[in-house]
Task: structure prediction
Amino acid sequence: MAWRFKLAPDKTNFDFFRFQWITFGGSLMLSVIAIVAWAVMGLNYGIDFKGGTTIRTESTVAVDVGAYREALQGLPLGDISITEVFDPSFADDQHVTMIRIAAEDETEAVTPEKIAQVEEVLRAAIDPAMTFPSVETVGPKVSGELIWASVLSLAVTSVAIMIYMWLRFEWQFGVGAVLALLHDVIITIGIFAVFQIKFDLTIVAALLTILGYSINDTVVVFDRLRENLQKYKQMPLREVMNLSVNETLARTLMTALTTLLAVGAMLVFGGDVLRGFALAIFLGVLFGTYSSVYVAKNIVLMIGLDRSEKAKKAGTPDEFANIDA
Result:
């Protein structure tokens, strides 16, 4: 007999509204705390948002990022990011890196003297023949524009998701889904603010990934809810919602677990470059799974649905609604 691991039985009958003022109220409280922490403590912006200097190096010696970082750690520099550059046009013995050094504050750029120190140290520690083809400086003005562009990208994505949910379901579903997404993003940002974890463009990419993951999970629950609203027209809305979440619970938990395993491996073994990105996604998956079960549907229940109109609405359930839970 084949053995199959299950996080939840095929059929469950949990009452997800039993402690709704604790679960939903706790989410609301955490969101407020996260916003306050963000406003009071601020974020530990990385090079992308603080401005700084990018130095391009070329060498015949294979790149060892650890060796580069060890060579530079004794210099009085701000945050350093070292990335190896790959290009099919490079010769076999051509190894290129981009070294990004953050400005020490919002007004002070990396001085030519410090750049000369970097070049001298790398030639002594890595390769005496190393060359530095380009040095570029990004000021705080450009970095400030990146911050607003990042905020705008999150806002536009949220509005687009709300419109999509409105067209696919009802406007109440769109509001519930987007507020649940904002819950995930705000709490994740709040954790980065409280622990002063470096916040750069890779974290913005992770937040956009969270939006995509969380809305997929919410759509599965809402698809099943729409199907059940058509099947059980006389059942109270709260009971239909409970039934829908129970029917998709095993699928939700298995999806979250497999995603967390993959992201957890990246978090543990990915090194400094990927750690912030992986942490943001890991937190986002946790909060996204929670919000799909406890936040999105609670908001829809509070707003209410016009069941009479819903019963008359034409349309067939989407393929997601028929996924084996």
